Each structure stands twice: as C-alpha cells, then as structure tokens.
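Researcher: Watch the backbone:
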Amino acid sequence: MARGKTIQLYLMDSVSKGRIKCTLANWTGIAYKIPRTELEKAKSIDYLKQSGVYFLFSTSDETQEHIVYIGQAGTRKNGEGILNRLQEHKRNPDKDYWTEAVAFTTTNNTFGPTEISYLENQFTKLAIDSKRYIVKNSNEPSLGHVTEEKESELEEYIDYAKIVIGALGYRIFEPIIESPEIITTVLAPTPEPLLSLILKQGKKEKIIAQGKQTNEGFVIIKGSNIKSSTVKSVPTKALKDRERANLDDNFVLLEDMLFNSPSSAASFVTGYAINGKDAWKDEQGRSLNEIEKLE
C-alpha cells in the first residue's frame, strides 16, 4: 500500500492566489509557484538565483485547453538563475500567454547543466505522454549525459516533483485514466465500472462509446465511436469538444478524452443534448443514476 506524504505549502503573501513555497518531507528539492504579476516580489528569494527547471502555465482563450512551456535556467555570471529567466520570458512578446510559473531547484544548490538538461528533457516527455496539456516547447530538450548513479538520483527527484506539482494544482503528469493494477489487499479501492453508451442502429442496439467516471469528471475511452452528424440544437460545448477531439476519418476516438460531466460526454458522442446520468450504463444495464442510488 502506498505511504502518505507530508507536503508543506507556505503562502508567502497570505493568500492562496499569491506566491507559494512548497517543500516535501525528506526531499532536498524546493518549488515555488509564482503568478506572473508577482515576479517582482520574488527578487528576494535566494533559491531562485540558482539553477533549476521551470514551467509556464496558462489556458487557451479559444478552447480552454491547458498550455505549458517547460524550460531550464542555469546560474549566470551575475548570480541570477531561474528568476532572471522568468523575467526574460515576461518581457518576451512571443511568450505573453502564461499566467503562472512553477520553478524547481534544490535547497543545497546541487544542480548543474547536466542535471537541469536531464530534468527538462524528462519533464517534457512526461507532459507530452500524459496528453493533459498542450506543450509549447518547439524542440525536444537535450537529454545530456548522466551516469547511472546520477540518473537514479534525478529520477527520484522527478518522482517527488510530480507529487509537488500535483499538490499545487497541476495534473500535468497524471494519466487521464490510471493504468489497471492488480488488487492485492482488501483495503484497495474498488475501480469504477466500465460504462457504455448504447444507441439504436436500425432495429438493433449497439455500443458506440465506453467511458469511466473519475475524480475529475468523465472519461470517454479511446476507440469509442462518435456519431458523425449533429442536430441543430446540439450544445455549443459539444461542438467545441468535437473540434478539439482527436478523431480518425471514421469518427473513432484516437485517445482517451476527459469531460467535466457524464452529460457533456454523452452529448459529444451523440451530437445532441442528452442526460448522461441516464445514458451511460454498466454491464447489467443499470444507469449512472441507478448505480449512485445503490451506493
């Protein structure tokens, strides 16, 4: 069974939307969440004068999709490191999209060029693989050359950093659906059931999409079929979801897709407004409404 972790979040400005310092028990790393508007206040943070890796976060105005840029910052001759790089991004008109930054370094100032190159490369790969965010990096960062011992040390740093960045509110490294694991103890949580959306095709009924509820909403699973046509009264959000969906020429979903509710997921599939609590059913034919009443 996974052990609990103790994370300390220090609200540096006494408000949740201000600067946040984050540390984790038994970890030499340290992270700072800094709103773009508060960069000037961060000048007094000595740790941000060191080498490290940083994330620039924002949300698309058009599609509401999450956006991230991942970069590295080495210590300059003038003694400026991460903060100086963030200030350069703030002045750069090509990177005016970001609203918050999260910076990672160490309490013992042990990161050199090799370490930050490795971390930038691995963080970028993890972000791309999770498909949670649009990754703005134009080129794949260099992996650098690290020894086996150093790689093991940096991978441990990454494991802790993933916990921290998730605690700060960014699920950039978490898969939309957790990989199935073998339940080995009675205390293991019961996995959410696989649900199906069934539509009539002629005189027959056919499963056209499958999905699962998660603690974030509802996920339609890769391989589901989406109706190619829509009605005039189709919800606007369903149309926008169809525009951003990764579909093949036969309207088959090519990757898992997260929705904020069962109804928005069902409307996306069918092309018309529909109550998802009634539409999604388990193997026994019970709707979500019926399942929830039994819980």
Q: What stands out?
A: The longest strand covers residues 204-214.
